[in-house]
Amino acid sequence: MELRPSPDSLTLAVLTVGLDAETVEQVLQVASTLPRDVISFDCGAHLSPARYQFFPQPVKSASFVVAVVDWDGDPAAAIETATLLHQTFYGKVAVLALSAVVETASLLEAMRCGFTEMLAMPLDGAELTDAFLRIEQRWPADTGTVRGTANVLSFFGAKGGVGTTTLLVHLAVYLTKFHNKKVLLIDHHLELGHVCLYLGLGASQYDFYELLTNVNRLDKELLAGFIATHSSGVEVLSSPSTYTVAAVVDPRSMELMLDFLSEHYDYILIDCDTSFEPSNATVMERSAQVYLVATPDIGAIRDLSAFVDQLVKTSQVKATMHVVMNRYGSREAVSVEQIEKAIRLPISIRIPNSFAELINSINIGELVMPGKKSVFAEQMTKWSDEIAHADGNGSGTRPVEKKKTFWGLGR
After folding, report:
1. Gap between the Cα atoms of 343 and 334, Å rounded
2. Closest residue by Cα to residue 187 from 202, 205, 207
3. Where are the alpha helices (DSSP H) in 41-74?
4. In the predicted model, what is the mean pLDDT of residues 46-71?
5. Which letter, b or e, does each residue of 88-100 get, where b requires 16 or more Cβ atoms within 10 Å of its Cβ?
6. 197 closest CA partner among 226, 142, 240, 151
7. Which string of b and e fits 252-266 if b means at least 16 CB within 10 Å?
8. Do the Cβ atoms of 237 and 209 come closer than 8 Å?
9. Model pTM?
10. CB 26 within 8 A of CB 125
């Protein structure tokens, strides 16, 4: 269902790029007279793929974006800026060029390269106001429409072998089969990830990182060529299935990729390599929930504690982070209290030790599903129910059992 707000409720973000302070002030004065809420942001220099451009969340969330860009200082950089703006604010941006000389050749070049109009410098306030009004008349009919966007759930294992991927593939299948959700599973390991292997899918010809390198021309048709589909309906973007030169993942490309994918899925589950490379920070930033997976052994606890320490140092600890203690039994040598003291975070979810059952299911290519009198399946069912019902969009197929001592952050 789409909710269409009234025109008066739409917000406009006005960006200024490469302009002097006097012109920036003039643009903002004109924008302030418009009959709607305006968010302003000065990008400073022209945008470049070599330099990550931060945009505040209110700018990203604006109903429409108008960027006013200097043309004369560097036309090539201005063209590159327009291209990047269209990628970042796909379908909801207009780009105005400012030039001291508006001639036919430069005007046509600007139009071909993504600019909406070219205005003469020194800037005339009335002309800029008219340009804003012309742009508003061309706003798409669905501007400001609230579209369904995916809940991004990211998973980080304290170390290899704690069962992160095993939990992830089960969770994805449970959300798809029992809650009728459209789920995408991304294997964000630079090489030899196990998602496709555990789902019994053959090696994919193309992987997630190849798709990332083509984010500038990403559309539904291109995406379909990279997707592997499990029998449950879960769709997968795989990691490379051979040793290769590790990809360098651009955080901006990751952000654009998640923006695009979020329009097409209910949930995006990301199996992340536990590292602090920049794209993982982007994944965490975009995640509705972040799950840190460990097992109750001293090695995993030590590594998880170090990982949390680094998250604290880099200000990446969020309220939406949850510790998942996998393979936990009542007779563990290390108690819950001792673990929580070591990692300085509460344990949110405990998954029982079903190691033999899971190894057998992976080896025969069949996931552990409800109905097999499995304590593992029972807890995974509760976890998937909790996720699906958290946003009010659960299927209603099962009542959710509220047990704060087991799932919640409280004790």
Report:
1. 13
2. 207
3. 57-60
4. 89
5. bbeebbbbbbbbe
6. 240
7. bbbbbbbbbbbeebb
8. no
9. 0.63
10. yes
